[in-house]
Amino acid sequence: MTHDGPVSSLTFDRYCHEIGYQTDLLAGHVKGADGTAPVASCPGWDLDRLLRHVGGDHRWADEVVRTRADGPVPDEGVNDPSVYADIDAAALGAWLSDGAAALAAGLRAAGPRAQVWTPAEDRFTTAFWARRMAHETVVHRADAALATGAEFRLDDDLAADGIEEWLEFSTVSEAYEPQPGTSELLGAGRSLRFHAIGAGQWFVDLDGDRPTWRIGYGEAAVSLRGPVTDLLLLLYRRPAPAVEVRGDTDLLDLWLTRTGFWLEV
């Protein structure tokens, strides 16, 4: 079974729940922490900046869903910290939770099939936003936990779904087509295997005119093995010391760079 489009293993309601739940956990990680503390996994950011980014993400997605936007919606609030500079640092936790709750409520009201604009090539429904915002919140919760020393744990099925979302993004044209100054990604014998201990395996085949991936095992040029949450964090270039990597690490670095084109941080 190969995949080159959206195949989600979790329900729409689960994603909506996780948006609020993961946000509340994130707020808990930073409660009482120094907002000016650096976030090493997001170079140049501090905790307050991280919270404003996540809250801006949620409010951006909420506007898309609420207005049933049929074209791009301005996203200055996602990456420009001055947009929400008027939010007092002491109120950021509550502000963050309020935004997540509004987004989850708006998604539930719309349902998973409402047609809206998305930045993806082939996904134009609210289901995209529910999944994307759930995983966006998960990864930035990991950033907050790393910055504060809080424990970061994630349900295996949610982490596995995050890996599959990444693999789906890895098949879009921008992730693999030749670009000036960038090494060729596709080629004979190029492949990757991800083995999440007790949670699943995925095989990525780059030996063709476009990437494909499937659930299951395969002999690969580079193999990664570790806990499923650590594998997810590695994809996002977050610390993942429990992951063992064998084989062509240059191919892995190139694949991570090309498939991470869509990340803001």
TrEMBL record:
<dbReference type="InterPro" id="IPR017517">
    <property type="entry name" value="Maleyloyr_isom"/>
</dbReference>
<dbReference type="InterPro" id="IPR010872">
    <property type="entry name" value="MDMPI_C-term_domain"/>
</dbReference>
<protein>
    <submittedName>
        <fullName>Uncharacterized protein (TIGR03083 family)</fullName>
    </submittedName>
</protein>
<feature type="domain" description="MDMPI C-terminal">
    <location>
        <begin position="157"/>
        <end position="253"/>
    </location>
</feature>
<feature type="domain" description="Mycothiol-dependent maleylpyruvate isomerase metal-binding">
    <location>
        <begin position="22"/>
        <end position="145"/>
    </location>
</feature>
<dbReference type="Pfam" id="PF11716">
    <property type="entry name" value="MDMPI_N"/>
</dbReference>
<dbReference type="InterPro" id="IPR024344">
    <property type="entry name" value="MDMPI_metal-binding"/>
</dbReference>
<dbReference type="InterPro" id="IPR034660">
    <property type="entry name" value="DinB/YfiT-like"/>
</dbReference>
<dbReference type="Pfam" id="PF07398">
    <property type="entry name" value="MDMPI_C"/>
</dbReference>
